[in-house]
């Protein structure tokens, strides 16, 4: 996969690898400074000649020169790696942001299409008696009924239609479809006599 910027995709392990490289360089720089420290505390800028202009005899000139040279090279490498780490992190965050935005857009599109594909309800459940056939089937208050057996929004005239279906279906399971929380839910409802009024409750 390619980045929007045209470069190759950056992974978390790429960043970890760069950070490991940075740590290695820092350890090498530290080792070089320690070597200089060991040479009578010669740093990066102390003169390597004595007062008379002769090479100092109290230090290993070759080691000091090599250490100084290595420090300069390593510091350049360190700067380059830090820039790479920064760029890699930037790309990684940009991709996360892009992915997040895409996920949100997809979720929104899915919610929109679901809303469009939800059928129209013709009745709403405003009460369910505990222990009744309706309650046992899982019907809930505020469920919007879109299909009740053979009754749907196209042939529903009044609640008498539902009462007829219930009477004809006593003891037989009815397929009921409701909209609950923006989703279509199917409930199997069997109208039957119980302790309370009616066949549903």
Automatic annotation (TrEMBL):
Keyword Chaperone: yes
UniProt keyword Chaperone present: yes
InterPro entries to which the protein is assigned, alphabetical: Nas2_N, PDZ, PDZ_6, PDZ_sf, PSMD9
Any one biological process term the GO annotation gives: proteasome regulatory particle assembly
Alphabetical list of Gene3D superfamilies matching this protein: 2.30.42.10, 6.10.140.1710
Record-annotated PDZ domain positions: 90-182
Coiled-coil residues: none
Short name of any one Pfam family annotated for the protein: Nas2_N
Subunit structure: Interacts with PSMC3. Part of a transient complex (modulator) containing PSMD9, PSMC6 and PSMC3 formed during the assembly of the 26S proteasome.
Family that this chain belongs to: Belongs to the proteasome subunit p27 family.
Protein name: 26S proteasome non-ATPase regulatory subunit 9
